[in-house]
């Protein structure tokens, strides 16, 4: 029996899901009241691409219109999501438009996401529980077990899944979990005897608003005797720590680098290395100048190691890192009772620790003016005075100072004493920035690949000529330190045997690409981009000009005109067929 018209009309009027009818140009020509309520009366006459955006589903609708049949897909309108079923409407064997039935799935999607999130957290929680060292048990408001972790199960010799659903008193001896659920009072660090062991337990009620919904029990240590064992272990480790601290102190009081560790074949580096040999035999004060990361500290070590003092200590002081009020006592030491907090018996300063060796005063340009005066006196008198003391102590120390500041400019600004500058400036090493000795880069790269390969344990990697070229093009404001960091980063991302340009930090390659992009007249560039887009659309639609025109938002005639202008049509059809 045919369905009466009145029934269809009623269905159309009362259906809660929006329904849209379009013509062959995908323009909305009619809707049911639900669609108008949701999208507004102005929806009639608007095109689907305006409503949906040119999402993949819209593209499929264009195809559907040509082929006929039906399709289902997901679309978003505003912040709402819909499942959309599209059916071709036929008239006289021709596809004259589409009928679109929308079903809102926003809430469904939200719930699905929420469920996925809950599931993920549940997995995380279970993993944490099962990898915890402590035994953990969770009970519900009636004392029935809802969670039981692996550690607890191992201790009791049971299987966690078999414990779920049992009453806690059935499973754990001397438990008070069922009491904690009633009192609501947490119990911490309680001793509980289980399987002949004295365990330390926490029992914590779980509240939901003002209602107790369960409790968590934690067994902190498997047995108190373990606490004693741990305490013994801590005592032993402390002793070891003291021993290694001493070793470390001795290590840092020695210069670690010598001349062979200074890599570079540039003329200036060769000359500086020769100079190291010359000045090493004397005790003259040396001033090392150069930007940060150029290798000043390396040279300081090398000078000390090449000198007759090489068996003596090498003490480094970073003048910028020590707070101003501590610098004097750090450098010259203090007597007992010199100030509140002073150590019993006093403390020797860095100059005394460096006796018979070298003191390396790094960042000397940052030394406060009053300390500069005191340092000048030490350099002249070759003796120091403890803070809080009044008898001078003779010292035999070679001073090497370093700075990345322009000391002459600081003198002009009244921030550095000129008399100290002349005292320090006996022998000066000017270490040039890396950008002025780029010929050293390949050797440095090889050196760092060797060194880092060993320390990172990733083996010896190679560098491709293209990646080396990127390094040679860079300006290296951070000098050798920056180069070393860049290579370390590259070794952390490289997975094959060779470092390629894309393993280097993007800031090195990006500037190069930007700088090297050729500038062409705008018209020429726009035409090239337009041609590329037409080709891309034809390729995507496998030569379907109508669809390609739709995709680019062009009328058929404009599209054909452009295709002809760029001589594309024939080649596109030949290559991909229609
Ligand atoms: N010629 C070189 N050969 C090998 N390694 C070098 C060279 N120059 C510098 N380095 C390395 O670069 C890093 C920075 O060097 P160093 O600390 O000596 O620089 P610096 O000039 O003292 O820096 P800052 O002024 O910031 O203290 C170190 O790891 C050092 O070993």
From TrEMBL:
Pfam families given in the database record: AAA_lid_14, HTH_8, PAS, PAS_8, Sigma54_activat
SMART domains, sorted: AAA (SM00382), PAS (SM00091)
Keyword Transit peptide on entry: no
PROSITE patterns reported in the protein's UniProt record: PAS, SIGMA54_INTERACT_1, SIGMA54_INTERACT_2, SIGMA54_INTERACT_3, SIGMA54_INTERACT_4
GO molecular function list: ATP binding; sequence-specific DNA binding
Coiled-coil regions, chain positions: 227-254
Keyword Acetylation: no
Domain Sigma-54 factor interaction stretches: 262-492
UniProt-listed InterPro entries: AAA+_ATPase (IPR003593), AAA_lid_NorR (IPR058031), Homeodomain-like_sf (IPR009057), HTH_Fis (IPR002197), P-loop_NTPase (IPR027417), PAS (IPR000014), PAS-like_dom_sf (IPR035965), PAS_fold (IPR013767)
Keywords: ATP-binding, Coiled coil, DNA-binding, Nucleotide-binding, Transcription, Transcription regulation
GO biological process, alphabetically ordered: regulation of DNA-templated transcription
Matching NCBIfam families: sensory_box (TIGR00229)
Name this protein carries in UniProt: PAS domain S-box-containing protein
């Amino acid at each position: 029996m045919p369905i009466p018209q009145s029934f269809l009309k009623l269905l159309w009027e009362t259906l809660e899901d929006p329904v849209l009818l379009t013509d062959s140009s995908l323009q909305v020509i009619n809707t049911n009241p639900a669609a108008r309520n949701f999208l507004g009366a102005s929806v009639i006459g608007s095109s689907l691409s305006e409503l949906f955006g040119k999402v993949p589903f819209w593209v499929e609708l264009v195809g559907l219109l040509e082929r006929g049949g039906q399709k289902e897909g997901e679309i978003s309108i505003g912040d709402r999501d819909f499942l959309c079923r599209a059916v071709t409407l036929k008239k006289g064997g021709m596809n004259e438009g589409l009928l679109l039935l929308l079903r809102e799935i926003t809430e469904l999607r939200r719930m699905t996401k929420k469920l996925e999130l809950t599931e993920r957290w549940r997995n995380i929680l279970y993993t944490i529980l099962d990898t915890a060292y402590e035994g953990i048990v969770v009970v519900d408001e009636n004392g029935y077990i809802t969670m039981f972790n692996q550690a607890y199960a191992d201790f009791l010799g049971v299987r966690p899944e078999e414990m779920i659903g049992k009453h806690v008193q059935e499973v754990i001896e001397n438990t008070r979990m069922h009491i904690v659920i009633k009192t609501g009072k947490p119990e911490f660090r309680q001793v509980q005897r289980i399987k002949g062991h004295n365990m330390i337990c926490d029992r914590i009620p779980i509240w939901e608003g003002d209602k107790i919904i369960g409790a968590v029990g934690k067994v902190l240590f498997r047995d108190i005797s373990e606490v004693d064992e741990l305490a013994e272990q801590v005592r032993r480790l402390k002793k070891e720590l003291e021993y290694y601290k001493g070793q470390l102190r001795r290590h840092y009081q020695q210069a670690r680098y010598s001349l062979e560790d200074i890599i570079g074949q540039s003329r200036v580096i060769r000359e500086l290395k020769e100079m190291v040999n010359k000045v090493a035999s004397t005790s003259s004060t040396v001033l090392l100048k150069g930007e940060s990361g150029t290798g000043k500290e390396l040279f300081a070590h090398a000078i000390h190691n090449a000198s007759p003092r090489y068996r003596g200590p090498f003490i480094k002081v970073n003048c910028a890192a020590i707070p101003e009020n501590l610098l004097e006592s750090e450098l010259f030491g203090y007597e007992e009772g010199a100030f509140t907090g002073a150590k019993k018996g006093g403390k020797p300063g860095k100059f005394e620790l460096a006796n018979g060796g070298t003191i390396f005063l790094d960042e000397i340009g940052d030394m406060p003016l009053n300390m500069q005066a005191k340092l000048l006196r030490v350099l002249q008198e070759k003796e120091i005075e403890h803070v809080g003391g009044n008898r001078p102590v003779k010292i035999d120390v070679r001073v090497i100072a370093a700075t990345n500041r322009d000391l002459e400019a600081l003198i002009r600004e009244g921030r550095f004493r000129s008399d100290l500058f002349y005292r320090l400036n006996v022998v000066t090493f000017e270490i040039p920035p890396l950008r002025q000795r780029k010929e050293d880069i390949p050797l440095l790269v090889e050196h760092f690949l060797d060194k880092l390969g060993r320390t990172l344990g990733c083996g010896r990697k190679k560098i491709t000529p293209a990646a080396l070229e990127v390094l040679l093009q860079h300006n290296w404001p951070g000098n050798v330190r920056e180069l070393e960091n860049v290579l370390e980063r590259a070794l952390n991302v490289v997975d094959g045997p060779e470092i390629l340009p894309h393993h280097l930090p993007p800031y090195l390659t990006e500037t190069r690409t930007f700088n090297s992009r050729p500038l062409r007249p705008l018209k020429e560039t726009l035409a090239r981009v337009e041609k590329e887009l037409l080709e891309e659309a034809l390729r995507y639609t496998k030569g379907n000009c109508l669809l390609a025109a739709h995709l680019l938002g062009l009328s058929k005639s404009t599209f054909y005109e452009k295709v002809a202008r760029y001589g594309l049509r024939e080649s596109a059809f030949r290559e991909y067929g229609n």
